[in-house]
Amino acid sequence: MTNRKKVVIVGGGTSGLAAAYSLLCSKEDVEVTVLEAADRAGGRIAGDEVDGFFIDTGAEIFIESYGTVRKLAESLGVPLRRPPSVKGGLIYNKGRFHGIYMGGTWKQRFETLKTLLLFRVFSLKATLQMLRFFRMMKNRGKDLSIEDPVKLAAFDTEESFADFMVRNSLGDYVNEASHVDIAAYTAAYPEQVGAAYGMSVLWNFSLNPAESVCLPERGVGSFATALVRATDEVTRLSTPVQRIVSQDGVARGVVTEAGETISADAVICATPATIATRIVPDLPPHVRDVLSQISYSTVVKVVMGLDFELLPPGTLAAAFPKHSGSFLLVIANFKCVAPGVAPEGKNLLHAVTVGDNARALLPLSDEEIEAKVIREVRKYFPAMPETPCFARAYRWDEALCIASGGMLRDVQRLRENGLGGVRGLFLAGDYTRVPISNGALESGINAADDSLSFLRRMDAGAD
């Protein structure tokens, strides 16, 4: 480029920071500005630190097939590692917890066998359906890649995961068991997510024995902290954007809610789809129609520090099915997968609630949420102290994009024809790929690459 160009990125979350970092690492002479509405960057992968405990305020899990995460982590100098434990934990049923582990020690395998056969936590019919579903997913595993939205979009229809399971005579399995995993990894329920997305999530996060959690020693939040630091000099906090300005079909800059006009040669809108439809007035109708149908899950979680292990050793989580009577979805022992999240001799618990249960907590103060969650944990684990080392509530009114049936297909079609519909405007976010943190990061990097290509064409007089 002969003249220095300006790129404004709206949103300093997962995809926005990935876009900024990619632009800063490029060899192009571009001026990058990130505008973040909140008073801190990092969005839904942000980290927090309390008295030597390292907290994932949003996303909590990376897995080995997250190729974009691995590349960024290496570039940022954040090592990733497999945890010293296996996937699995406890599920609450019939008044007690039962062990369910994918592999593991002989003791854990025996515990799983007892759960399935002796305690009959799941009906025999559901257990047989689970085995059949596993074979189905194994046979089509290559089509379920969370790295390849094109493959998933190819068989994405309007059918929900719940309807797909019923149609394939797998309804007992989804009702008795798989809905917990779906909710834990998407913060939504089987009737809300599409069949293609639901299959991909279950296979990659839960059923695939070749897959593994792969995290920084101090959790996802430490990855976000490194990304925030690498882009800190170009990020403006507490700067919400009122609208993205275009002229003659070309993005020209933004206007902040404070009334400041910031010119740009290219704009990357790295916000949730709900915000993009509000701040981009010139979206073509077909783009707006798709984006306006995208919704997000709601999550409230309380993170607690303890000076002992509340869950059995090697147990990642205790899960609560929808018929359990608890408003909690899961209590996770995060030192089990990321040993560096807590000081020596201490432990870190995440108590998570989603959907309507989470929305019911939103009107409460942080202190009220913390107290209510601690009381709930104590119902099932009496050893839980009334006053832990600390407790912090984190609330996400828009947590994860809900990939309802047909959404992956519709967004892929938009991508193939130019997602933004306005020259010089590029959309990024988890909704533009497979809705996971890896997809959000990839979307930011792709938007950065596309913006550079646009600027080169503009510089050459071709755009």
Structural description of this entry:
This protein has 15 helices and 19 strands. It has 463 residues and is an alpha/beta fold. Strands 6-5-14-15-16-13-17 form a seven-stranded mixed sheet, sandwiched between helices. Strands 7-2-1-11-19 form a five-stranded parallel sheet, with helices on one face. The longest helix is centred in the C-terminal third of the chain and has 23 residues, at 437-459. The radius of gyration is 22 Å and the shape is globular. The model has no long low-confidence stretch (mean pLDDT 90). β1 (5-10), α1 and β2 form a beta-alpha-beta unit.
Overall structural class, as computed from helix and strand content, comes to alpha/beta
Mean pLDDT: 90
The rounded Rg comes to 22 Å
Query: What gap, in angstroms, lies between the N and C termini?
Result: 14 Å
Number of helices: 15
Helix content: 25-40%
Total strand count, please? 19
- Major beta-sheet overview: 7 strands, mixed
As residue ranges, the low-confidence spans are none
Major beta sheet, strand line-up: 6-5-14-15-16-13-17
Can you tell me the overall shape?
Answer: globular
Strand content: 15-25%
